[in-house]
Amino acid sequence: MDEDALQKLIHLLQATDDPLIQEQxxxxxxxxxxxxxxxxxxxxLGGLSVIGGMLSDCVPKVKEKALNALNNLSMNxxxxxxxxxxxxxxxxxxxxxxxxxxxxxxxxxxLTNMSVTSDYHHKxxxxxxxxxxxxxxxxxxxxxxxxxxxVNLSANPAMTRHLLRAKVPSLLLLFDNCINRDILxxxxxxxxxxxxxxNNEDGTMIKDQYSEHSIFSMLCRxxxxxxxxxxxxxxxxxxxxxxxxxxxxxx
Length: 251
Known about the structure:
- The chain is an all-alpha fold.
- The protein is built from 15 helices and no strands.
- The protein has helices at 3-15, 19-32, 36-44, 47-53, 60-73, 77-83, 87-96, 102-114, 128-137, 140-154, 160-165, 181-199, 215-221, 224-233, 239-249.
């Protein structure tokens, strides 16, 4: 698709209130954004702010298609610099969307891309309770997408305290031999990252600031059930799972 056609699509999005036309225009822009050359063109034409404006639309399908388009466009670092202004809105969309819906998953996919580097993690702090709620209540598809975001956040030492404070009583259930391998492996990487960052702290990690049912309690204060789970996982058939268990146990 050439620059002229992309410009017409962006103008069409600005000019119409018809959700069906908006949806189709966003799908076309999203498909075009799969090509890196178009990612730059759409940004230079002012398309990011037009698509971002659709996140406030009242029609769920329009919001979903806007998130999909931004997801493809976010593969580009310069685009991320503009898309980051919508992170709080994306988090709101995730929180208000029906559980396990395509809208919610589209938002989580965009957060995954936007959290690959630590540049915008601070904008996601207030959404940690929501992410952990989805981890407890969501389907496997939702859980995997949430864990992709949480693994990215947990790799950043600046996010360690925020994550350790969070309450998620059911987290322990994910560390089980019968759990989907993709979920189990990501949950182990999440825990291993947090343990590593805790051990690298300068001794200022005060136990009293973490409440019961917090992730800190599971990993450290009441760690016997977690240790038992890890011991059992040492017999897991998957090599990567066992490697992450060893990583946690040796930190």
